[in-house]
From TrEMBL:
Pfam families, alphabetized: TetR_C_23, TetR_N
Annotation: DNA-binding region: 55-74
Entry-linked InterPro entries: DNA-bd_HTH_TetR-type_CS (IPR023772), Homeodomain-like_sf (IPR009057), HTH-type_TetR-like_transc_reg (IPR050109), HTH_TetR (IPR001647), Tet_transcr_reg_TetR-rel_C_sf (IPR036271), TetR_C_23 (IPR041673)
Name of the protein this chain belongs to: Regulatory protein TetR
Lineage: Bacteria, Bacillati, Actinomycetota, Actinomycetes, Micrococcales
Transmembrane segments: none
Amino acid sequence: MVDVRRDAEPDGPTTSGSGQGATGPADTGAVRDTRAHVRATALRLFRERGYAATTMRLVAQEAGVATGNAYYHFASKDHLVEELYRDVNDEHARRAAAVLADGGDLTARLRGVLHAGLDAFAPYHAFGAEFVTVAIRPASAASPFSPASRAAREVSERLFRDVVAGARPAVPAGLRDELPELLWLAQLGLLLFWVHDGSPDQRRTRRLVDGAAPLLGRLVQLARLPVARGVVDDLLRLVREARA
């Protein structure tokens, strides 16, 4: 007789708690290894099948663990997407390191770092729209503004702080603190354009980077002029009010 209970198992938590910190196995080396294996399996499936086709049940099956065990380590599929973002941001930082080590002006550094980001995201372009749909949900753990995504966000923001801090000539003092966050937000907009870019190898997005980076570099240098200082101050005040 077929065990219909297994076939009817919902794609949801099967334990009394979910996510790390729930009642479950002690934090041993074996548990950490299992978590890493579940994570690696999920990221592989995201690359191969996209978000919609990668269920928690499938992740568990491919990893060779019970579905409840997968939920013990990751409270939801969105938490696994957040792990994907963290991986991509780490890869972005790795690729950008050589660009930042070469010094250069703000335009060159920003152009190189944005291209490095597109290189890091490239393996996921086919499923990009699915991941954006998840990320724009305010309550999603995968939202770039969520507490769960803080580690991934900090990697990216630190990268743009390095872009600004190492630029020569130096970025005007009044912009140094706020510009990295603005650049990070600009990258989010760029990625939205990239998701919808159907040109070969997303060449339109690459051209956008090549055109926008020099423009931004010139605008930042114009901020040194007294005539532009009032506009810059108004912009920064608006940013601070939006953040509050």
